[in-house]
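Ticket closed. Logging final result for LysR family transcriptional regulator.
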Amino acid sequence: MIHREPLSLRGLPSVRQLRAFVAVYQSGHVSAAAQMLSVTQPAVTVLLREMEERLGVRLFDRSTRSLRRTEAAVEAYGYAVRTLAELESLGRSMADYSGSRRGRLRIAATSTVAQTLLPSILRGYAALHPDVQLLIDDCSPGEFVERIVSGRVDCGIGTLEAAVPSLVEQVFLRDSLVAVATPRYFSTEKHLTWKQLSAYPVITVKPGYGVRRRIDRAALDAGVELRIANEVSLLTTAIALAAGGLGVAVVPGSIVGTSRNDSLKTRRILRPLVERNTAFIFRRGSTLPPTAVSLQEFVFRKP
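Final structure:
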């Protein structure tokens, strides 16, 4: 049993052989090792013989009553113990990874979503997965799709203004546009139409940003021209300007509750009703890491 060349991976001992060897080495008896491993004595004997054949050395000198360790066994024992420990560590690590107990999660979100909806989502997620590292890529609406398509992040939380073939959009929050202003702009509790909205100074995002395309389209469908008083980059800024009495902000209803401004009144805008939904978004055909899968599951079961 002499090997003149290094062993190939196929010639290395199996995990079962290593466990049998360590058990026999520690106990000094095949019968005791068999009890430790919950297998039969012949099975342990076969595993030892197979390991010796693979390594090309004798590990134990056998007699009718006992086994005596050889120098090769003393040399091999340390390697065997470390190998088994590393494999057990690998198993624990992968179990933690697959169960989202550890790892990292890279999320893209527009600045408005990152400031309004995302904190409550991630607070609940972090409570369930405290050891997952959360990396938030807050970006402009124009950069949102690119962040996900390029693979710079694992997933995105937000809205696609148009379908993107390479992305999957799973809506978990259904929303619509509302008008937000101080009480002096709203004399009744009734909903607004786009025609009625056209009588007010409107605060909205700049052309090309987020909901602006939907606002312009809704006004066109209603046959009205809005009086745009202020154009901003962030919806949160629009709400702040509305709170200052500068006009009526047109924003998704879901972000109004996060402003915590009791001085503002909210009215749904009808004819037409414009939806603005929030989705979990990821690359089509890609394998989501377990941390992203657990976030996906969380947002869909979150009340």
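Residues 9-98 form a domain with the Arc Repressor Mutant, subunit A fold (CATH 1.10.10.10). No further action required.
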